[in-house]
Amino acid sequence: MNLNRSHFLLFYLAMTAAIASGLAIFSSASNITLMLQSAASGLFVPLLLALVTAFLLDPLVGRLEKYYVGRSAAIVVVFLLLTVLLWLTGSWLIAYSQQMWDSLLNDFPRYTSGVITYLQELQAVWQRRLPLLAQYDLTEWVRGAAERFFSFLLLATPKSALRLGSLMLLVPLFSFFFLRDGHTMRRKLVALAPNRYFEMAHDLSYLISCQTAQFVRGRIIEAAIVGLVVMVGLSFTDIRYAPLLGLFAGVTNLIPYIGPLIGMVPGILIALVDLGLGGQFWWIVILYFLIAQVLVDNFILIPVLISRFANLHPVLVILAIVMGGKLYGVLGMIIGVPIASACKIAFVEVRHYRRAFALPETGSDPSS
Amino acid sequence: MPQPWSRIFRHKSEEETLGGFLAKVPIFSSLKNRDLAYLEKLVHVRTYHPQEIVYEQGDPGSGLYIIRSGRVSLFTRDAQDRKEELILLGPGDFFGETTLAAPAARMVSASALENCELIGLFRSDLLATADKHPEIANRILLGLTMVVSERLQAATLELRRLHFESPGSAGDGA
User: Fold this and answer.
1) A chain contacts of residue B58, beta-carbon cutoff 8 Å
2) Which of B28, B81, B124, B165 is a plausible cystine mate for A206, CB 3.0–4.6 Å?
3) How far is residue A306 from each of residues A297, A311, A319, B33, measured CA to CA in Å?
């Protein structure tokens, strides 16, 4: 085989073209992923909220469907009822919360300075006892963090109001379609399974979606009740912002173990600054710890609402919170744990399923 | 009627529609016409190639299959993995109904003999129906009970016949 110059030229051209097209494909692929990522970045929160809304409204829609109302019509009726409810409460609620938010922004510097005074006294005590820690200035650190947080609040309020507007448009839209077509979507997805595995995929998808829906519903109802208990309990005292503190305690209650502790910090700090170390302060501490957490949540709500095997090991909870926080900030911290629980539900269901059908070998000796 | 018009206004005959086909299956005999539209959306239509396995003995069973077209063979395997054919089923027949109500492993294997269209109805679909439309689920379960009890009765008679026919059993029958 004799190779002449034209062969080499051809080989060189072919290799160059191959490398160039490879590079082009690689860069366009990464460009496309980047584009998709930036296009979908704003959609994660509305999609997630819509999914949760759909889980919450599904039982209502199902109840209407029992009377042979079409699914779309049933969803429209539920949405209309919700709109009317929001319309009736909205005008009062918005003015009330606006007023509360404004006065909280005014009070915020007072609360931080109160906390910092306490911390200064505390710091003086421990620096006297442990001279080793003299160089660490916790008070200054807290002051800096509080200032940063306050300026963030002032800046973020108009921005989050804009986002709230887009959420109010997108969430009902997405949740309408999740409610109407969620079942069909699941069916179509399962139908892609090969014949041999179709039956198992269908069974498991049903079990997992039932358990997940029940879990999400349970968690939201639990958080709402805990928030309500805190709000009602706080309104017996002279503390201000009882509704906001109840809301905060409810939202943070979605995170197991750590959430309730974070949820009680602002309430206890405000009580400390405004009410001092009196009877009311201790009532608030008892309310947060004993009544809301131990009595209502642990003894009543969790056994009734949350299935036992959705519980996560504390290490997994911390991992989920850290990883969720890395990916999506504060929101990631809240939703990381429910997503990890949903994964665990899927895992446990698959294991149950396998165990339920693990029969002795049918071909073996029947006497064994 | 010219060709295009007849194509547009052509109605599917009752046998051609899925609902019409399902109405003739004994399990669904007590369903009303209104329920059939719901049932059409509930079942799963699957196509199988010749020799394709539908399920194997010992697989988790969760529902029944109705044959719309083609033939299906039910068989068992012995310890040496040899097939022993039990029965051949054709269009309109159904199999696997015992696992519809109670979860159990499949007692036999099923495979398609030719290109088949099978219609599956599974326990999870029935559970969802029991939640949403209890009366439809009731009618399906009634049909299922009817079919299962008929088959149980036939099996009991067959067992009795075998018991009396087998040599040496006539005297010591309980």
Assistant:
1) 357, 359, 361-362
2) B124
3) 11, 8, 21, 41
Tell which residue, A54, A327, A333, A332, has the closest CA to residue A216.
Answer: A54
In the DSSP assignment, the letter for residue A357 is: T
Confidence band of B15 (pLDDT split at 50, 70, 90): low
The whole domain housing A165 covers 43-192
Which of residues A176, A192, A208 is at a domain's end? A192
Spatial distance between the Cα atoms of A325 and A41, rounded to a whole number of angstroms: 16
In the structure encoding, which two tokens stand for residue A162, read together?
Answer: 């804009």
Domains plus CATH for chain B?
Answer: 16-165 (2.60.120.10)
ipTM score above 0.90:
no
Q: Tell me, yes or no, whether A150 and A275 share the same domain.
A: no
Helix (H) or strand (E) holding B119: strand B116-122
Structure tokens at A155: 């800046």
Q: Which residue of A has its CA nearest to B125?
A: A206
Residue A1 lies in a domain: no
Q: A160 and A77, same structural domain?
A: yes
CA distance to partner chain B, nearest, from residue A347 (Å): 17
Whether residue A267 is found in the same domain as residue A304: yes
Domain contains A8:
no
What's the structural domain count of chain A? 2
Q: Is residue A37 part of a domain?
A: no
Q: Where is the domain boundary, A160, A192, A224?
A: A192
Average pLDDT by stretches of 10, chain A with 368 residues: 78 90 86 81 82 90 85 92 89 80 81 82 81 74 82 72 80 92 91 90 87 86 91 87 88 84 86 80 85 82 73 82 82 80 84 69 41
Contacts of B124 in chain A (CB under 8 A): 202-203, 206-207
DSSP state letters, A68-137:
T--HHHHHHHHHHHHHHHHHHHHHHHHHHHHHHHHHHHHHHHHHHHHHHHHHHHHHHHHHHH-GGGGG--
Residue A36 lies in a domain: no
Residues of chain B contacting residue A66, judged by C-beta atoms under 8 Å apart: 132-133
Neighbours of A191 (CB within 10 A): 13
* B132 at interface of A, judged by CB pairs closer than 8 A: yes
Which helix (H) or strand (E) is A361 found in, with range? none
